[in-house]
Amino acid sequence: MIERIAITGATGYIGGRLAPQLLRAGYSIRCLVRSERKLAGREWAANPAVEICESDLGDEPALIGLLSGCDAAYYLIHSMNSAGADYAGHDLELATKFARAARLAGVKRIIYLGGLGETGAGLSEHLSSRREVEAALASTGVPVTVLRAAMIIGSGSASFEILRYLVERLPIMITPKWVSTLCQPIAVENVIGYLRGVLRVPETAGQVFDIGGPDVFCYSDIMRVMSDELGLRRRWIIPVPVLTPRLSSYWIHLVTPLSKEIGKPLAEGLKNPVVCREDRIAKLIPQPLLTIRDSIRAALTQIAEHRVETNWSMAGVMPGDPDWAGGTVFRDARTIEVDAPAAAVFQAVCRVGGGHGWYAADWLWRVRGWIDRLFGGPGLRRGRRDPHKVSYGEALDFWRVVGVEENRRLALRAEMKLPGEAMLEFVIEPLDATRCTLRQTALFRPRGLFGLLYWYSVAPLHHVVFRGMIQGIRREAMEIAARLLLA
Fold it and tell me: Which of 142, 133, 140 is nearest to 89 (CA)?
């Protein structure tokens, strides 16, 4: 009976969703991660059945010790995000070392999530690398279960993010020829269901399975489904033969949150039909399979409700999701030390807007208010209810208060007309009884191509507006502190 399981890639997109599911099924897990801190914010990581071990998978002797006592091991490593152009060679080396360590540690089986695609010489480098990893993991005799998937549809997955942002931002798309390639996507919850299910089905050991959802569409049809679910007008898709994977990767880099380093191998892989050739796994591990439309709808619902469990950016050496998650998030963050107690700083922060103004470049704020009014927004005409106090839910010029913590935090959400969503947050951290650190962060999540253009057009003004604001708050806080001292 399998009881303790090792998971590599627990900080990544799939591993971060699989781990809590294994815990719910009653297994103990040992997470092999590069940085223990990356799991610090996960609720499931505090479970007594979880061991977190910092590990360099390239250190084979150490890996043997970490795998000892584990009945099975999930290999969910892919270095496309961090190893650059030589990711295939790096992946092959790590998989070979892992297989040797697993055999010497007595691991009974390895489970690997690979890529779906026809075999043969025409495979992209991306899919060829996945096949090499499969062979390397099986090279030492430890039974390997391989699940081969095409596009995984789920909030935060790399392929889903590419699809969503291309459709959302481009009403007319000039695309490579691969938009006519057939694909059999699968919902992330079904992937997790299969990964978890193979542990309790001994017949899956040493086997390779194709996994996919019930629909087979070409990419252009998947884009149209995405457009429908986003509530957008019909997108015009124009395939041309001249867009190479390299050019496509730069386009992906420009329009979506993903980098060109990730975009290129993914774009290359899209030239290969990715359709299941057999469905044995569905008989061994039956589960309801989500259609493409239902998968997209479920993913978009999670994004809208801020329930994105994991994101593609969590993997590798890249930082995890920003605090305000859900795609590309631009930020202007500034920190300053203030010679005043937390209460005085909080009072100064709470005076922003209304008749008091915004501490700097008020004429720019007024211009922005006029423009907002011209486009049907609230502008600055709403002012504020009280010149000194703010309460949750009240209007403050063209912002609304969405977070208040006395003497610690104020968060505002923009209600002006914007091609995106914006927030402004102030966080106060006391250094001692008379000094504080004030952190001021402006966040902007663009919507569509105009959202990107908007951010880059106003970014040069941030040095004037936001730098002046935080310095003005410091001056005001020190004056408040001086008045309190005299009183």
Answer: 133
Q: Which two tokens stand for residue 464?
A: 């004037």
pLDDT digits (tens, 9 = 90+) for 386-432: 677 787 667 788 888 888 888 999 999 998 889 988 999 999 999 99
Show Cβ contacts of residue 272 under 8 Å, excluding neighbours closer than 6 positions.
117, 118, 122, 123, 124, 127, 181
Query: What is the full DSSP assignment across 176-230?
Result: -GGGGSEE--EEHHHHHHHHHHGGG-GGGTT-EEEE--S--EEHHHHHHHHHHHT
Give the pLDDT confidence of 273-324 residue by residue, as tens digits: 889 999 999 999 999 999 999 999 998 888 777 677 776 655 554 333 334 5
Name, in order, each residue with C-beta under 8 angstroms of 111's C-beta and a sequence gap of 6 or more: 72, 73, 74, 75, 144, 145, 147, 195, 198, 199
Q: Where are the alpha helices (DSSP H) in 106-187?
A: 125-137, 158-169
> To the nearest 10°, the Cα dihedral for 201, 160, 264, 244?
120
* Cα dist from 430 to 314, 336, 346, 405, whole Å: 31, 12, 11, 14
Question: How many of the other CB atoms lie within 10 Å of CB of 125?
Answer: 16
Which domains does the chain show, CATH number per domain? 4-314 (3.40.50.720), 330-486 (3.30.530.20)
